[in-house]
Write a structure and sequence with these properties.
By secondary structure, this protein is of the alpha/beta class. It is about 30% helix and about 20% strand. Strand 8 and strand 9 form a beta hairpin. Helix 1 runs parallel beside helix 9. The radius of gyration is 23 Å and the shape is globular.
């Protein structure tokens, strides 16, 4: 029996999940699956790294509600837990989430440092009519409309908009079509968006809790991983079909070429929302990088072959798509203790807190501790982000994108009216652009 090879470009969750489905559902031999990843680790944006002394870095987490992520849960039912091999990763996550359910008592905080009342979504009749009309309008009739083309100014000051936008990282100038898709896909979140009770959290960050078990499962089936391997271009056969004949790539900085056989399958993960990131520190701001290799690859192959999409729609509007996140590593529990008393959120609920009047539109999440497998008991880690990184701070008169970690922390503590605790928190944060 002849078996064709499968090449998957990118080592993120999509590529790993595809490989796992091939192994599990198609009885495809793992040794015939080759995953090529540019970074030195798998996981893509589902990352998590660091230590208690130098600080940790994460690029956020994904909300794994039951109603929406059916395929993900189906996959994770087949992946054994690293800590409890008799359990699946799905079972492990559900047990953890049952013991530590998400529930926010301070979803929005106003400029006075007070928890806002979110029992009402704040809609007026015009907001309701626009919402219903958007749901009913076919996508082809929406065209290139933006969210702020569809809704009036009042909508963007509603509790619903503050909470929905920061849950899904929407900005007013983003696509109305995409906004509609999220409204339909996450309809179950409407009655609980103010508490986020539908969000299922993992025991650790999602790299430790999801990517590592998935990687071990695939390695056990012989899947080949080529790290620090960057695909730069693809050659296509002449004709109407999309058939790849040759792959160009860099391995350890050296250019290489691979000729593909008849029937070999190539799957490309194109573009990345975190590819232009760079790390800052407590004393230095990050610098936003340009398009990386995945965007450049997409541009090259789309220019060669019709039907491969228009990367410029996504990649040529950096100022309208960028945002900034930060990870704070605290030596001690002072900040967590104060946040628990202020927010009335039980420690470790992973509840999102948004500062709705922040010029940076800033939010933070305090996950259950430890959030990393190697995290010392005395160390606490939390994550936050700003959707408007070019806004001038309310307390630090600079763009968020130009701020150091110390300045971002200063802005945050002033919004909470915790500024007297600046020295006691003793942070070692890392900041980066996305």
């Amino acid at each position: 029996m002849f078996l064709n090879l499968r090449y998957r470009f990118g080592g993120g969750i999509a590529s790993l999940a595809g490989a796992a489905f091939l192994v599990r559902d198609c009885d495809f031999p793992g040794q015939h699956i080759h995953v090529l990843e540019e970074m030195k680790v798998l996981g893509g944006s589902n990352d998590g790294a660091g230590d208690g002394e130098r600080g940790y870095v994460i690029r956020g987490g994904r909300m794994l509600n039951d109603e929406t992520y059916e395929n993900t849960w189906d996959l994770l039912r087949s992946i054994p837990s690293l800590d409890h091999p008799e359990l699946s990763v799905r079972d492990e996550i559900i047990a953890f989430d049952t013991a530590h359910p998400t529930h926010s008592n301070a979803r929005l905080v106003n400029r006075d440092g007070q928890v806002a009342d979110v029992t009402s979504m704040g809609f007026d009749m015009a907001d309701r009519l626009a919402m219903v009309k958007l749901i009913m309008t076919p996508e082809e009739n929406l065209g290139t409309a933006r969210i702020n083309d569809w809704f009036g100014s009042h909508f963007f000051k509603t509790n619903f908009c503050y909470m929905w936008a920061t849950t899904f990282a929407f900005q007013p100038w983003h696509s109305a079509v995409e906004f509609k898709r999220y409204m339909l896909r996450f309809m179950d979140e409407f009655p609980r968006v103010h508490t986020l009770e539908g969000v299922t959290r993992t025991p650790y960050n999602q790299y430790d809790s999801v990517i590592l078990p998935l990687q071990k499962y695939l390695e056990g089936h012989g899947v080949d991983f080529s790290l620090k391997c960057t695909v730069t271009d693809l050659d296509f056969r002449e004709g109407d079909e999309i058939t790849v004949t040759r792959m160009h790539y860099l391995k350890d900085g050296e250019p290489r070429v691979l000729d593909l056989g008849e029937g070999d399958l190539v799957i490309v993960t194109n573009g990345s929302m975190t590819e232009g990131y760079s790390l800052g520190s407590m004393n230095t701001p990050p610098k936003l990088n340009g398009k990386g290799s995945s965007w450049q690859l997409w541009e090259r192959i789309a220019a060669k072959k019709p039907g491969l999409g228009r990367p410029s729609v996504f990649a040529d509007h950096i100022d309208e798509s960028k945002w900034e996140s930060f990870t704070v590593t605290c030596q001690g529990s002072r900040f967590f203790d104060r946040m628990e008393a202020f927010s009335r959120n039980k420690a470790g609920t992973g509840a999102l807190v948004t500062f709705k009047d922040s010029s940076w539109f800033m939010s933070i999440v305090l996950a259950h501790q430890p959030h990393f497998r190697n995290q010392p008991e005395h160390v606490k880690v939390f994550w936050g982000y700003g959707l408007f990184p070019d806004g001038i701070g309310d307390y630090v008169p600079k763009k968020m994108s130009e701020c150091t970690g110390e300045e971002i922390l200063t802005e945050l503590l002033h919004h909470l009216h915790f500024q007297e605790d600046m020295e006691a928190i003793s942070p070692s944060p890392t900041v980066f652009h996305v």
